[in-house]
Amino acid sequence: MRHALKVTIAVACAITAAAALTLGAGGAWETTVEAQSAPSTYRPPRAADGHADMNGIWQAMNTANWDIQDHQSRQSAVLALGASFGVPAGAGVVEGNDIPYQPWAAEKKQQNAEHWLTLDPEIKCYLPGVPRATYMPYPFQIVQSRNTILMAYEFASASRIVRMTKTEDAPVDSWMGWSRGRWEGDTLVVDVTGFNDQTWFDRAGNFHSDALHVVERYTRTGPDRLSYEATIEDPKVFTRPWKMSMPLYRRAEKNAQLFEYKCVEFVEELMYGHLKKPETK
């Protein structure tokens, strides 16, 4: 009887402790949420041009390159790859998790997703475009000067120049577009136009036309963190503008640097193998 009573008391104490711990964790979680939602008081260091210092090697830590909307994990499109190329689950980066496609475009997006392995421009090593270059699973570097800001990306050695004093339009459409920048306080605002229609937003088939217009906002919110926003407008494909947002993190390991990933040679057989002359015996 005494033994049973001791066990009962022990269980009750354990339940009480667990409840207290849960309440404590809940309080901590609420405090964290409140802290995250509070206005930032961080004062970023200044670069040589007197503006907020954006210099560094940065990288997104999310699964947006797989799908910019909420998505569940699923098996690889190539069954022989097993788990090594399965799609990881992830939270979307699109505000409201809704992309306002026109009806015809929603159908095309679905077709793109079904034939991803043959249609995705990433598969063919095309330049990734904007904003996709920002959240691919590779780092990119910002080099800041007074009149221009260079953004260099590891994938396919892509790069673009943000012109801080130029206002002219793009001379020709391209994969990475034509970037013009300005400062709004400590936020770098980049207005990008002049795209072709050869890039996607992700591996899930989300796409755009050559009327794409992207407005990016980079805000330094901590010593090793940027807040990134991109407003997307394309009247040929979408019914209204929409936005994605995410944090970017500084690569802080010793000797952090961009390495070469020149993937053209990896896709030559895929793209041009059918043009080879048959071997003669």
Largest sheet: 9 strands, mixed, barrel
Q: In total, how many beta strands?
A: 9
How far is it from the N-terminal to the C-terminal residue, by CA? Answer: 92 Å
Category by helix and strand content? alpha+beta
> How much is the average pLDDT?
86
Order of helices and strands: HEHHHEEEEEEEEH
Protein architecture, described:
With 281 residues, the protein is α+β, with helices and mostly antiparallel strands. It has two domains: 1-38; 56-266, no CATH class. Helices cover 22% and strands 22% of the residues. The protein is built from five helices and nine strands, in the order αβαααββββββββα. The protein has helices at 2-37, 103-114, 116-119, 132-135, 268-272, and strands spanning 56-60, 140-144, 148-153, 159-163, 178-184, 187-193, 213-222, 225-233, 242-250. It has a nine-stranded mixed beta barrel with strand order 1-2-3-4-5-6-7-8-9. The chain is globular. It starts with a helix and ends in a 9-residue tail after the last helix.
Which terms summarize this structure?
single chain, 281 residues, alpha+beta, 2 domains
SSE diagram, text form:
Layout lengths: L1 H36 L18 E5 L42 H12 L1 H4 L12 H4 L4 E5 L3 E6 L5 E5 L14 E7 L2 E7 L19 E10 L2 E9 L8 E9 L17 H5 L9
Parallel strand pairs: 4-5
Antiparallel strand pairs: 1-2, 1-9, 2-3, 3-4, 5-6, 6-7, 7-8, 8-9
Characterize this entry briefly.
With 281 residues, the chain is of the alpha+beta class. The protein has helices at residues 2-37, 103-114, 116-119, 132-135, 268-272; strands at 56-60, 140-144, 148-153, 159-163, 178-184, 187-193, 213-222, 225-233, 242-250.
